[in-house]
Amino acid sequence: MQSPDASQVQGREVWLLHPWSLGALPADLPPDAVVIGLWLQDFHQAWPWSERRWRWVAARMAELGARMWWGDAAALGPALAGARRVRSRAEPHLQAWLPRWAECLPEPALFPEVTPCCASFSAWWTRSTRGLSSAEDLLSREPR
């Protein structure tokens, strides 16, 4: 983990990973984009984590090729200011900060919207999982 470094992102496209969005990187991310694993000190000082959680999140960020930045909002914002474009996934835990620095894409919906409303959970489940044969199918399907 390192302090935010503006020289790493200057003029480049950036994808900000955060601990609540560790899925696959966006398909439209340019190959030369910089992936930054964001560890926002302001949040983590208020809500400390266990060492086990830190290790698990850091391991996944490393798998995704992220450079991991640890810093407070006062340091992170200016470090990202020189990037050509900064994107991330929206996240309620980081709502006070993330939208100031990045285009925040919505999380992909796990289930499609079912309209009209169903009269029961089982009816909704049947309609929302139509065509899927397993949980793996559900997790691997394209967001709608």
Strand order of the largest sheet: 3-2-1-4-5
Q: Could you report the average pLDDT, rounded to the nearest whole number?
A: 83
Order of helices and strands, N to C?
Answer: EEHHEHEHEHH
Helix content: 25-40%
Overall geometric form:
elongated
Could you tell me how far the N terminus lies from the C terminus, measured between alpha carbons in angstroms? 35 Å
Low-confidence segments: none
How many beta strands in the DSSP annotation? Answer: 5
Largest sheet: number of strands, sense, barrel closure: 5 strands, parallel
Number of helices: 6
SS class: alpha/beta
Write down the Rg: 18 Å
Strand content: 15-25%
Can you tell me about this structure?
The structure is a single chain. This protein has helices at 41-46, 51-63, 73-80, 98-101, 121-128, 135-140; strands at residues 13-17, 34-40, 67-71, 85-89, 103-105. With 144 residues, it is an alpha/beta fold. Strands 3-2-1-4-5 form a five-stranded parallel beta sheet, with helices on both faces. Helix 4 links the parallel strand 4 and strand 5.
Secondary structure elements and their pairing?
Elements: E1 13-17, E2 34-40, H1 41-46, H2 51-63, E3 67-71, H3 73-80, E4 85-89, H4 98-101, E5 103-105, H5 121-128, H6 135-140
Characteristics:
5 strands, 17% strand, alpha/beta, elongated, 31% helix, 144 residues
